[in-house]
């Protein structure tokens, strides 16, 4: 069963189209990455999922229930971590965690104390005295101390130091082991790459790419570095990009479906060295950030 | 302190002025317009000698002196209407200007520091003291403009007895008084580590200054001199035109501002001089409810308003006894005022007092609903709505808190009057609680605005200001009955002076329920900011 089901969801603010016919589908036990540039509509999507914004058209369901009509009901099974934890300045961290757990209606004291320990938080300080990272810990602790079935995390590690980021990743993986689902919106692509099985990329309110990392890699180019006995004069082949000649090395990118032909062509020159690096998520992402049209063909080599 | 510390003050002044320009314009416009409108209508109010004498005697009774200041010798009220105008308007206008200055300085010092704006500005090549200096320059300009417009306006109205010099003095009192409280706020901005503490302490000083002056004006002048408001109501403006209170207040302002600059120069950013302590690691059962949390967030505000309301009401209660003796000695006045001879002056005064005090209570009660809007703009309501809390739950918790707060404050109002005077507890309670429907109407209006159109929610303050104008000046400004009745407080029966009547109360109840319903329904339908 799908935990989250978003179908042709559109949200307009006046004339501005914030979300344009978005589709999302998260399965049980899945960690789903949601990436896109600033202002692309990630947080708006999440706000709709939380029942705080009313969809203009289309539907969004969590656990098979409408997110706007059954918000309160759905939230019994949801833990949300905002990218910027806005807390009450005059309450202590410990008090806020307790309030959050009570308002969810579930969660255990022992888990709470264990997480406070793990994230190294001093719960006796007032919220206004915490740094951004420490405020973020409070939101994370109250989310992971609950026994929610679904985690909605909106850039949850902003401000965390690398040690704490690792503990966060452990917590997410533990949740997955327990069969829980996670929607992770993030800018830290290494984190998404490490944790997420499936990814959607959103830009200007539209989802422009969805799939597993492997599928997406297939859609893009592999980085190749070769050295040959005979120098390669030209490599004007279909699907070859960004050709760079350095000493004897030739570095370029190849569309995945053209690799076979390219290798056959090169092998005639006598291969001395061949290195292949799969595209990182960052490569994938950069293409979308920069708005490069992924369907273009031809060897515009440099 | 040397010049380097003030580098960049001009640019920072421009930034602050730009950020606050709408507020500044609204305040100046409101204060100047009300001042001039009242001054303009005064010559037509008390025209013959009998009514002037009546006015003089009313205004010199101890309760009025406590409320509005010592006023003038009886003969002075015949010299020029300026005296009547000044006695009725001056003190409360100073207070309005002081409130403006406290809010302006509060938000351009500690609030800007809390939100990190000062940090950004201080990282630029500007001096350490430039932000505080700029904030004081802005408040000084605002006060100067009030002085300027009021003085010139009063002079141009061409009222008999208002000379250029006396008009300048009147405007000057307002500006100097406002600036003084702005500088007090600048001082507290150094001492208190929070913006709420800063404005809270400054309002506290204003209330204490008012009470000390009231007590001193009724009992002994020496005590009145302990309060800057006590100085400012002693200029004899339009008669002798004494300028020394202006000089004295200015002198103190300069001294206090030096002190504020000194403290600003020796403290760390974001720090105060009051220590912050370790807190609890667990929340209490009560705090874990939405209502409990809403209460906790407003506890300090509710307590301080409670103290203020009680103190004001007890002070007025204390002069009530004197009032009765005063009036029983004045046969002339009995004839003049008591058209319905059954109603005593005391009862009339209680009615007036309760109406004004209840309207004051409307301020914190409205603030309680406004707090929810501020929670939303600070993205803190998402903490509720991403959890198992419904919108109705949140809004009803805040509404309930405001309703209970109104009962609590009206109760303290009644108790204050009762302990300090010979008024029976029953009369005190009745005359105070009769205003609850008006307060609840105010709450439901705020709920409706918040639920339906939160963007314009601050307009509720214009309505509150309108109610004040109706209660205080509608006779003067010749408001028609329908316009007066737009104020929720006007149609409430004036107990104990007038008899009980249910019709207005029932209408207000129905409106309250209607407004609340609209508020709740729209709140459930609209998008939430955060």
UniProtKB/TrEMBL annotation, chain A:
Domain spans labelled ABC transporter: 4-229
SUPFAM superfamilies (UniProt xref): P-loop containing nucleoside triphosphate hydrolases
Species classification: Bacteria, Bacillati, Bacillota, Bacilli, Bacillales
Annotated family: Belongs to the ABC transporter superfamily.
Residue ranges of the TM segments: none
InterPro entries: AAA+_ATPase (IPR003593), ABC_transporter-like_ATP-bd (IPR003439), ABC_transporter-like_CS (IPR017871), ABC_transporter_ATP-binding (IPR050763), DrrA1/2-like_C (IPR025302), P-loop_NTPase (IPR027417)
GO function terms (MF aspect): ATP binding; ATP hydrolysis activity
Leader sequence residues: none
Keyword entries, A-Z: ATP-binding, Nucleotide-binding, Transport
Protein name (database record): ABC-2 type transport system ATP-binding protein
UniProt key word Transferase: no
TrEMBL record, chain B:
Keyword check for Manganese: no
Alphabetic keyword roster: Membrane, Transmembrane, Transmembrane helix
TM annotation in the entry: 24-42, 89-108, 129-156, 168-189, 201-223, 243-263, 302-321, 349-370, 395-420, 432-453, 460-482, 502-523
Highest taxon of source: Bacteria
Pfam family, one: ABC2_membrane_5
Annotated coiled-coil segments of the chain: none
Name of the molecule in the record: ABC-2 type transport system permease protein
